[in-house]
Structures are given as structure tokens and as C-alpha cells.
């Protein structure tokens, strides 16, 4: 069976320039560019490395990562909050 992982990404509305950027989402070394908001992936049960950042002037900014353990048939949600200062780290939490 499989597990479901939802990653919800958001930023402060005052950081309006981030609306024009994409999220760099990497799960177990497989990278993709996605839009801000919620993304759901079906993964095998077990431990998974999740890295999140966004592009800012051609560089990855707001980097944050976590390891999440998924049980068979589980539905897990991660939340990523972009930093107010783009040179700072973002924050990933299990919600």
C-alpha cells in the first residue's frame, strides 16, 4: 500500500514578489518546481527526505528540510512558511 504526503507552502502577503516565484520541492533527491499552495504526492511507506526552497534572483532561498516517516496508508501534511527576509531559512513543520 502507499502513503499520502501533502506539502502546503505559503509566504507573508507583504512579500508580494514571491507570488512570481516557484517552489523548489525535492523528495528523496527528486527535484521539481511547483506553485505556491498545496501539493500532494503518493509515496511508499518509510522515511523520506523533503527539501523546500524558492528561487530568488536565480538562487535557492529560504531553504528548509525535514525527514518524515510515513506509515502504510497514512495521510501526512507538512507546512512550509517562507521567511520574511529571503536570506533566512524557511520553516517546515508537520501539521
Q: What does the secondary structure layout of this molecule look like, with pairings?
A:
Layout lengths: L2 E8 L12 E5 L2 E5 L2 E7 L2 E11 L2 E12 L4 E7 L9 E4 L1
Parallel strand pairs: 1-7
Antiparallel strand pairs: 1-4, 2-3, 2-5, 5-6, 7-8
By DSSP (H or I, 4+ residues per run), the number of helices equals 0
CATH level 1 class label = Mainly Beta
- Spatial sequence of strands, sheet with the most strands: 4-1-7-8
Give me the count of strands.
8
Radius of gyration: 13 Å
At the fold tier of CATH, the topology name is Immunoglobulin-like
Following the backbone from N to C, one meets helices and strands in this order, namely: EEEEEEEE
- Mean pLDDT equals 94
Using the alpha-carbon principal axes, give the shape.
Answer: elongated
CATH architecture: Sandwich
Distance between the termini: 22 Å
Task: For the structure shown, list the relevant keywords.
single chain; 95 residues; mainly beta; Immunoglobulin-like; four-stranded mixed sheet; four-stranded antiparallel sheet; 8 strands; 0% helix; 62% strand; elongated
Could you describe the 3D structure shown?
This protein is 0% helix and 62% strand. The protein is mainly β. The chain has one domain (3-94): Immunoglobulin-like, CATH 2.60.40. The chain has strands at residues 3-10, 23-27, 30-34, 37-43, 46-56, 59-70, 75-81, 91-94. The strands form 2 sheets. Strands 4-1-7-8 form a 4-stranded mixed β-sheet, with no helix packed on it. The chain has a 4-stranded antiparallel β-sheet with strand order 3-2-5-6, with no helix packed on it.
